[in-house]
């Protein structure tokens, strides 16, 4: 067998090397969207985002927490479907199981889908990690008439089992006690994979000479399924990977089906047998009536699902959500009413004049005055933009976004646009990172690791950098363009067409596997106000901490640039492409801001628009050009981290000229057809 080589260019699979604080660890693992992060937030002093779609968590989160009087380090991992990972974030979780020493692992499962979740429990048991099974979402299981004999299940598996409803706190006391009193037991369930596979496992186990943290039986299964990390592990221990490779090849040769499929089927047989002995569906009359009500509910939610997924109804619904959620709430209400008041009245007429007057009186040096309260000053520009302009827009956007996330709409949207996405080299799976991009493109670039193929990851990162405006920028642009629905429409169509065109070309140019698409449909849930509030708050805080320093740095850089004359040169140089796309020379400043962050540039656009320096056509052209810029320095760094330096620079080299190119074409066409906005 040709030994697989592990490419670790992206930092996906590295566990952060933060020195451990010496506390015993509790690690949450399990399928995506089962409530791991809700439990993490309950147990630890940190917060991580909770949403109703699979793949919310893509990185390890850590926090400390006290359980039954003892302090532990609590660790949340990204969801994984099996110990044999497919996507990068699953790999992050797999590494954590293979490498960490923990007091206990909590395998969190969705109780209503136990049959699908238990195979991972069995794999964890076989890996011999200290384990507690948490049957979460018991409320939804009960609603569906599912009854689970937890005691019997615990007996069968040989590990503690606790049932919980993590969102209401039910069962969490018992879970805490179980964690505190946890002692590893010897008598675990051992699945039977049938003679042939068992003998292959045995042969592989006996050829492993070193000691490993996980049981050799589990490692052998990963090797038989040609898992890269497992091979890397044995290579590090100086085993004889070639010999093991031969055993794997021999075992595979004896089977007509791939070994991983065979193993998965056999494991499921074991699970089915256990489930049949511990799970019942309520059947008496009262319960039958209950079930009927539930079926009705089910058929209603199925009908809603169909409405959301079929293009003929799904697209109008999507447009309605965009119209009310984005245009009306973020564009008209937040960017219009709220920003007008904050920037125009509160900061413009009251706070800033007061600060400027007092600062100038206190510090009589024009150079220093310029740095803090001048035209591009730290207070008058950086802080004013961040608080009065960007914050209300980001806040409004995150409220809408958190509500959409919590309902479970995103996986439905993924189904709706899967077909369109296939044309641009992506699958419906990429909908989630692309939609997240409207929140923050930097964060979304990281989420592209949930995509299965490298080709898809590169195309998605590219399109994110190119054509998806983040919340702040979208807010400002919606605010500027809401003067005319025609202008907004032209902007949206141009950006959308550019996205489709570049995606289409990239998918033709880049070779690679075509992605498969399946998505798990979580039930539609009513968003919880508390969750929406805390999510919006934590995202705004995160955002604010990221943009404010950058805006301040930009003010300082511009100040230095003005002192040494570089600023004027840059503005003069940028005046050329600005004029080239029909804008006044002053617009060069806005593009200069745009290099720091697109939203900083968009804020500059907002100011020019308010000052009446631009025509309707100018505004559309400027908005299109800015949208097609690289989003911000943070996003660029993230692309370097996830996709590598070369890819990131190649993207930037393409994006900046193409942004001005498209601006040129739009300006030309609008003038040619004599469009007046
Ligand atoms: N009804 C009900 N909903 C729950 C329960 N636990 C979690 N949820 C909801 O399930 C969804 C997923 O929760 P998360 O904590 O984000 O799930 P996760 O396992 O961290 O998911 P990933 O990060 O995608 O792997 C959210 O909408 C939660 O509010 C529960 O016990 N009952
Ligand atoms: Mg999570």
From TrEMBL:
Family annotation (InterPro entries): Fe2_transport_prot-B, Fe2_transport_prot_B_C, FeoB_Cyto, FeoB_GTPase, G_FEOB_dom, Gate_dom, P-loop_NTPase, Small_GTP-bd
Keyword Magnesium: yes
PROSITE patterns from the UniProt entry: G_FEOB
Residues engaged in binding GTP: 30-37, 55-59, 76-79, 136-139, 165-167
Source organism superkingdom: Archaea
GO cellular component: plasma membrane
Positions with a binding annotation for Mg(2+): 41, 44
Keyword set, alphabetical order: Cell membrane, GTP-binding, Ion transport, Iron, Iron transport, Magnesium, Membrane, Metal-binding, Nucleotide-binding, Transmembrane, Transmembrane helix, Transport
Gene3D superfamilies on file: 1.10.287.1770, P-loop containing nucleotide triphosphate hydrolases
Record's bilayer topology term: Multi-pass membrane protein
MF terms (GO), sorted A to Z: ferrous iron transmembrane transporter activity; GTP binding; metal ion binding
Alphabetical list of PANTHER family matching this protein: FE(2+) TRANSPORTER FEOB, FERROUS IRON TRANSPORT PROTEIN B
Protein name: Ferrous iron transport protein B
Source organism per UniProt: Methanohalophilus mahii (strain ATCC 35705 / DSM 5219 / SLP)
């Amino acid at each position: 067998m040709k030994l697989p080589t592990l490419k670790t260019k992206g930092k996906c699979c590295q566990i952060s090397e933060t020195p451990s604080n010496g506390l015993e660890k509790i690690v949450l693992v399990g399928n995506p969207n089962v409530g791991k992060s809700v439990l993490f937030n309950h147990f630890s002093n940190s917060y991580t985002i909770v949403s109703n779609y699979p793949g919310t968590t893509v990185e390890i989160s850590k926090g400390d927490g006290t359980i039954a009087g003892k302090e532990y380090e609590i660790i949340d991992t990204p969801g994984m479907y099996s110990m044999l990972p497919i996507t990068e974030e699953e790999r992050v979780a797999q590494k954590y199981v293979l490498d960490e020493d923990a007091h206990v692992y909590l395998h969190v499962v969705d109780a209503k889908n136990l049959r699908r979740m238990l195979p991972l429990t069995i794999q964890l048991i076989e890996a011999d990690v200290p384990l507690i099974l948490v049957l979460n979402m018991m409320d939804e299981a009960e609603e569906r008439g599912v009854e689970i004999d937890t005691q019997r299940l615990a007996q069968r598996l040989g590990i503690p089992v606790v049932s919980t409803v993590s969102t209401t706190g039910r069962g969490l006391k018992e879970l805490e006690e179980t964690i505190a009193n946890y002692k590893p037991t010897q008598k675990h369930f051992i699945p039977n994979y049938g003679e042939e596979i068992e003998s292959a496992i045995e042969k592989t186990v006996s050829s492993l000479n070193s000691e490993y943290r996980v049981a050799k039986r589990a490692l052998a299964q990963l090797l038989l399924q040609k898992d890269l990390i497992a091979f890397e592990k044995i290579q590090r221990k100086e085993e004889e990977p070639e010999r093991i490779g031969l055993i794997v090849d021999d075992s595979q040769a004896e089977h007509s089906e791939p070994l991983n499929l065979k193993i998965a089927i056999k494991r499921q047989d074991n699970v089915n047998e256990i489930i049949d002995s511990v799970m019942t569906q309520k059947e008496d009359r009262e319960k039958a009536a209950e079930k009927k009500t539930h079926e009705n509910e089910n058929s209603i939610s199925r009908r809603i699902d169909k409405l959301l997924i079929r293009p003929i109804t799904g697209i109008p619904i999507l447009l309605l959500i965009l119209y009310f959620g984005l245009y009306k709430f973020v564009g008209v209400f937040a960017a219009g009413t709220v920003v007008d008041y904050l920037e125009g009245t509160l900061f413009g007429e009251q706070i800033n004049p007061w600060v400027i007057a007092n600062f100038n009186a206190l510090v009589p040096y024009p150079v220093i005055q310029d740095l803090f309260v001048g035209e591009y000053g730290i207070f008058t520009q950086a802080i004013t933009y961040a608080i009065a302009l960007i914050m209300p827009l980001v806040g409004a956007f995150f409220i809408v976004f958190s509500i959409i996330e919590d309902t479970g709409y995103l996986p439905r949207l993924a189904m709706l646009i899967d077909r369109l996405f296939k044309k641009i080299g992506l699958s419906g799976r990429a909908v989630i990172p692309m939609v997240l991009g409207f929140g923050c493109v930097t964060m979304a670039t990281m989420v592209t690791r949930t995509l299965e193929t490298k080709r898809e990851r590169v195309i998605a990162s590219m399109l994110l950098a190119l054509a998806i405006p983040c919340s702040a920028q979208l807010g400002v642009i919606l605010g500027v363009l809401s003067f005319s629905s025609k202008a907004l429409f032209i902007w949206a169509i141009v950006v959308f067409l550019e996205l489709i065109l570049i995606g289409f070309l990239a998918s033709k140019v880049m070779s690679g596997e075509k992605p498969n698409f399946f998505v798990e449909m979580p039930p539609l849930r009513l968003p919880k106000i508390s969750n929406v509030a805390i999510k919006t708050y934590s995202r705004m805080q995160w955002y604010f901490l990221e943009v404010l320093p950058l805006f301040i740095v930009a003010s300082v850089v511009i100040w230095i640039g003005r002192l040494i004359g570089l600023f004027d040169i840059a503005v003069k140089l940028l005046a050329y492409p600005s004029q080239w796309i029909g804008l006044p020379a002053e617009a060069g400043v806005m593009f200069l801001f745009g290099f720091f962050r697109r939203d900083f540039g968009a804020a500059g656009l907002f100011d020019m628009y308010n000052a009446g320096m631009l025509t309707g056509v100018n505004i559309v052209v400027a908005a299109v050009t800015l949208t097609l810029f690289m989003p911000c320095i943070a996003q660029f760094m993230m692309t370097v981290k996830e996709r590598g330096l070369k890819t990131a620079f190649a993207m930037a080299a393409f994006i900046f000229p193409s942004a001005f190119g498209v601006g040129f074409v739009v300006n030309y066409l609008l003038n040619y057809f004599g469009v007046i906005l």
